[in-house]
Amino acid sequence: MLNVSGINAFYGKIQVLKNVGLHVEEGSIVTILGANGAGKTTTMKTISGLLKPKEGKIEFLGEDVTGLRPDQLLRKGIALVPEGRQILAGMTVMENLEMGAYHRKDKEIEKDLEMVLARFPILKEREKQLGGTLSGGQQQMLAIARAIMSKPKLLLLDEPSMGLAPLVVADIFNIIKEIRETGTTVLLVEQNARQALKISDFGYVLETGKIVAEGSAADLLTDSRIKEAYLGVKS
Amino acid sequence: MLIEQLINGITLGSIYAIVALGFTLVFGVLGIVNMGHGEIFMFGAFIGVLVTTTFGLPLWLAFLAAIIVTAFMGYLLERFALRPLRNHQGSNHLAPLISTIGVSIFLENLSHHLFGPGNHPFRTPFAEMSIEIGSVTVYLVQIVIFVISLILMAALSFWLGKTKAGKALRAVAENLETASLLGVDTKKYITLTVILASAMGGIAGILVGMAFNAVTPQMGLSMGLKGLAIIILGGMGNVKGAMVGGLILGLAETFIVVYGDSGYRDAIAFIAIIVILLVRPQGLFGQKTSDVRR
After folding, report:
1. Which of A70, A74, A91 sits opposite B170 (nearest CB)?
2. CATH number where B112 lies
3. Chain B partners within 8 Å of A97 (Cβ)
4. Contact A91 B185 (CB under 8 A)
């Protein structure tokens, strides 16, 4: 579904991604692991169009989409829930959800809105509240719900569990599984390696801008190097 | 006497509010103060003079012409004075401010050249018409100005609050990146904002021409600075703040002339800036925030 190859990306003169390539199968959950500063967020920004790579190719559903803007990529079916959630703090919860469906013209928006509000009762309770008044976990729910409203084919989630309480984190991972069950493919960036791999089919490990390991999630979970570096287990 | 002054103050204030809305929209979306706004406003006033006084055409045509011309000027301003700086990585954040100052100087001189210096009278067919209610005299011009301003403010509030495009514009104002991730063509909305703000400035120009019956190439600067004062008073980028701030300034200026010293009239706006920055730096309606805009 998504084919990324040979990506070199820069912030100014500093090269952040070096020859990054990855592949996401339709209907799967793929996780990118890595330490802080490894280039995970940059990878997500590049795929979602926020950052234009200097070199490399991004193919989505067999079409070359390299260099397109985020709004164009969303119309093709790629949605990003960015790091730090980035909800619209000065707009109400309902307006945030409506903005999720901004690019849609179909007649199912109302139905999807009801479905999303049924799945996230806390958002229904607070639909008239400003987004900025929600707690961190609720904001993450809103950010994911908003992305669902945009009906993506591929959902990119950048550190959805960051800064959240363990119970909320478990909830977030359940939601991610549900999203996949509804037919949406998920590309996930996580620090929470063990939980992320448990729900994933495939994983990549990013170190200082390079892919250093890849494999099925089950293999990565038992790989001794991965265990030591990212799962906090001495082998 | 008091009621008449109140009406004068509200009339003036509603014009200020319209000018300030133009400032606040651009600030809210682009994060810059458009110093050329006052001069676009002045051009709107001159279009009004041309259409009504020089050509003797009806007033509604003046509004139409001013909206078209100033909207186009807004487009040119965004296209040539702002966009090149925005796309240029590493350009100083003060660059757009300086560039709009350049636009304002250029437009003032252009209007000198095109229309000539000095006062240009603005004739409206109902300039002297008034209604007596008891002992209170209300000029028809004042009613027209107030009603037009009110309609404009209500329309803008409705558009921003209830329509899809208005919500998208607010999303762009809040966070450019997030808006683009939600599928909003941010470039289009930035251009639209400057066009909309400029057209509102053009309408305000005609309203001022009607109210004071005088239009000069210099009027842009003082109105521009007052508009800036109002958005600082109301809260930068805040729509409600611009409306209320405009009314407050209009009323304050009117009452200082009546009950104080008319020499201080134009100082009010700047005294207000100093006081508000000392007491409530985020403005009357602004939110305290540590967020850095882009």
Report:
1. A91
2. 1.10.3470.10
3. none
4. no
Looking at every residue in chain A, the average pLDDT score rounds to 92
Which domain does B236 fall in, by range? 2-117+136-279
Fold of A2-85+152-230: Rossmann fold (3.40.50)
pLDDT of residue A116: 93
- A44-48, A208-212, B220-224, B259-263, range with the lowest pLDDT: B259-263
Q: Which of A44, A85, A88, A150 is most worth mutating to test chain B (most B CB atoms within 10 A of its CB)?
A: A88
- Whether residue B167 and residue A86 make contact (CB cut-off 8 A), yes or no, is no
3-state class (DSSP) for residue A233: coil
Which tokens in the block code for residue B198?
């400029």
Confidence of residue A235 (pLDDT cuts 50, 70, 90): low
Residue A164 main-chain phi, psi, to 5 deg:
-110, 155
Q: Which residue has the higher pLDDT, A230 or B6?
A: B6
- pTM equals 0.89
Q: For testing the chain B interface, which of A11, A50, A71, A139 should be mutated: the one with the most B CBs within 10 Å?
A: A71
**ipTM rounded to 2 decimals:** 0.91
Please indicate, yes or no, if residue B127 is contained in any of the structural domains: no
Q: Under a CB-based contact definition with an 8 Å cutoff, are residues A78 and A24 in contact? A: no
Q: Which of B166, B245, B191, B171 is nearest to B82 (CA)?
A: B191
Q: Other C-beta atoms within 10 Å of B162: how many?
A: 9
